[in-house]
Write a structure and sequence with these properties.
Layout (H helix, E strand, L loop, with lengths): L12 E9 L8 E6 L27 H7 L32 E3 L4 E10 L4 E8 L9 H5 L4 E3 L6 E2 L6 E8 L6 E12 L4 E6 L4
Length: about 200
């Protein structure tokens, strides 16, 4: 299937959403970021990227692997920290092909849609990194510097208060002072049971 028309690199904020970071020890919460589409899930929307049939489980290798072997560390897109290459990261990742999926204005409120297929409550957190390099992904500290706020609450976490599955739609406010040719949006789903978390990053906007 042909991919949607590429987004031009203009002097505005263009988001590259990498993938889903899902650090979920012991429990099996599953979800995928569909809007903006993640690196793992963009193929479902017609983008010319390899299909990731496990796009709802970026579990950092699983609880035992993440905590027993990697000391709790995880790749920025939910791949095991000790994997090489990491499938959802550049360079070398099969699903990390520098595809820009969305273009936004600085300070804009954007719609986010997450398809939750197994719900264990918990919360979502969204972070933004101005990377500007489609062939080399950043380190986690770049994301940690910019935590996005939920609209209209202004909170930095979106809580799941029921066990419902399906698509959750919410809004985020982008920072007014960020302009980039390639920003990366990172979504983390932290599950309340056993304090586990799921990391998901999407494609490029």
């Amino acid at each position: 299937m042909s991919s949607p028309s590429p987004v031009p690199h203009l002097p505005v904020l263009t988001l590259l959403i990498i993938c889903l970071l899902t650090c979920i020890p012991r429990v099996s919460a599953h979800a995928r970021l569909m809007e903006p589409p993640s690196r793992a899930s963009m193929w479902r929307l017609g983008y010319d990227n390899p299909p990731d049939f496990n796009d709802h489980q970026g579990f950092c290798g699983g609880f035992k692997h993440q905590y027993g072997r990697n000391g709790g560390r995880c790749g920025i897109c939910g791949d095991p920290a000790d994997a090489w290459p990491r499938h959802h990261e550049a360079p070398g990742g099969r699903f990390a092909n520098g595809i820009i999926t969305r273009q936004y204005r600085p300070g804009q409120d954007i719609v986010v849609k997450i398809d939750v297929t197994a719900n264990h409550k918990g919360f979502f957190v969204f972070k933004l990194c101005s990377n500007n390099n489609t062939v080399q992904d950043p380190v986690q500290s770049c994301f940690d510097d910019t935590v996005l706020r939920i609209v209209p609450s202004g909170e930095d976490r979106y809580y799941l208060t029921t066990f419902n599955t399906g698509v959750f739609t919410l809004k985020l406010r982008l920072p007014p002072n960020v302009r980039c040719s390639q920003c990366i949006l990172q979504w983390t789903y932290t599950v309340t049971s056993h304090e586990n978390s799921l990391l998901a990053i999407t494609p490029q906007l």
